[in-house]
Write a structure and sequence with these properties.
alpha+beta; Alpha-Beta Plaits; globular; 4-stranded antiparallel β-sheet
Length: 153
């Protein structure tokens, strides 16, 4: 076969350091546009992006030549700099180490997009911690709770 053909869909989830609620609705759209640009400049396709003041969900259509860890590292590093240079927060902004990555099939795209778009309503009923642990359990990912994030409870 002369070429590579694939459909890889990944939802990436990560949190603000110490789960601080620093992402404000007055600038979140600008942040999402900036992250969209990073993803597109890396040759990948952003399908959906949304989040809450303390975390973000990004749904990406990925090409097989992209290393997910490198892409997420670039998103975090560049968006940290962007947020701090724009002085969107009164304190230095950092993303927490690590991330969750969950794969989906083509038939699941619409459901994942709706889930991500509905983050604000979804989190009126469920905390990020509960949501994240549910993802890990649904995808049968072994974890130790004390290593997930720096939880502020």
């Amino acid at each position: 076969m002369a070429d590579t053909y694939s459909k890889i869909y990944i939802q990436v989830v990560f949190s603000v350091q110490n789960r601080k609620a620093l992402i404000h609705e007055s600038w979140e759209e600008e942040l999402y546009k900036y992250i969209t640009g990073i993803i597109q400049n890396k040759g990948q396709k952003l399908i959906a992006i949304n989040g809450m003041p303390d975390h973000i969900h990004i749904f990406i259509g990925m090409k097989p030549n992209c290393c997910l860890s490198d892409l997420v590292r670039e998103i975090k590093k560049s968006s940290n700099s962007f947020i701090n240079e724009k002085q969107f927060t009164k304190i230095p902004f950092y993303w927490q180490e690590g991330f969750g990555a969950f794969s989906y099939g083509f038939s699941q795209i619409n459901n994942v997009v709706q889930y991500i778009k509905n983050q604000k309503n979804h989190h009126k009923k469920k905390s990020f911690k509960v949501e994240y642990i549910e993802f890990l359990e649904k995808f049968e990912i072994e974890y130790k709770e004390n290593f997930l994030f720096e939880w502020l409870d």
